[in-house]
Design a protein that fits this description.
Layout lengths: L4 H24 L5 H28 L2 H19 L18 H23 L6 H23 L7 H25 L5 H28 L4 H4 L12
Helix pairs in contact: 1-2, 1-6, 2-3, 3-4, 3-5, 3-6, 4-5, 6-7
């Protein structure tokens, strides 16, 4: 079935707007509470629509920027959401809470796709798009590779899932905001469009990580810092 390009573009814009709105609610809401969980799920679903429409549009127009941002941002969001389920995978008999086909398949796809895009950027290093392809492609490939290695490990780090969830969900949002500004905010200087979301987001993530690490170092468990429910017990919904 050949989906018209204008329909794909409209769907991409709608899903993108919904994802950014949901991300804002998730960030503002108390962590782990009902509003945070609902907004987070809407965000993941909306980003799924963004990813699918981005890939289809990029294949139609050979837009490698759209492709690399779509793959990179969606893998961060998907793996960040799945981190809530993968708290103690080796100790769980429930397949929902162990790395499965979705986790491994997404990581393998991202590793191959991002490696290819980074290599393309290296070959065509003289083009304007080369730095984006090499940077995002390399980071995405490395992230997926480390995840695949972690899936095989039996080592349990009690707070790893917490930071993986937080950093990757926020990282996916930063990538999406950057793509939106680069594409639409032509009134801003190019350097501001590229760097402002990353700089602001990095500051926020660094402060939050520092704050939560201090909490955990003082003896607090993730479940006492945020109302976390998913993946805590094998019979969770």
């Amino acid at each position: 079935m050949d989906i018209p390009a204008p329909f794909l573009l409209t769907a991409h814009i709608v899903f993108g707007a919904l994802s950014l709105a949901a991300a804002a609610f998730a960030v503002a809401a108390p962590k782990g509470r009902r509003l945070h969980r609902i907004a987070g799920r809407i965000y993941v679903l909306a980003m799924t629509g963004v990813f699918v429409s981005a890939i289809m549009l990029s294949l139609r127009s050979n837009d490698l920027f759209l492709m690399v941002v779509g793959i990179f941002s969606y893998y961060m969001v998907l793996s960040g959401y799945r981190a809530l389920y993968l708290k103690q995978p080796a100790a769980s008999a429930d397949l929902r809470f162990r790395p499965g086909a979705l986790d491994k398949g997404a990581a393998q796809f991202t590793l191959i796709a991002c490696s290819g895009l980074a290599a393309y950027g290296a070959v065509y290093w003289y083009t304007d798009l080369a730095p984006v392809l090499m940077v995002l492609g390399s980071i995405g490939a490395l992230m997926a590779l480390l995840d695949l290695r972690r899936f095989k490990s039996t080592r349990v780090e009690p707070t790893r899932w917490f930071f993986t969830h937080m950093i990757r969900m926020l990282g996916g949002t930063i990538a999406s905001v950057t793509a939106f500004l680069v594409t639409n905010a032509e009134m801003l200087p190019p350097l501001a469009r590229w760097l402002a979301p990353t700089l602001a987001g990095t500051v926020v993530i660094t402060l939050w990580v520092f704050w939560y690490k201090r909490k955990f170092a003082s003896g607090s468990a993730p479940e006492t810092v945020a109302d976390v429910r998913i993946g805590e017990y094998e019979n969770d919904d």
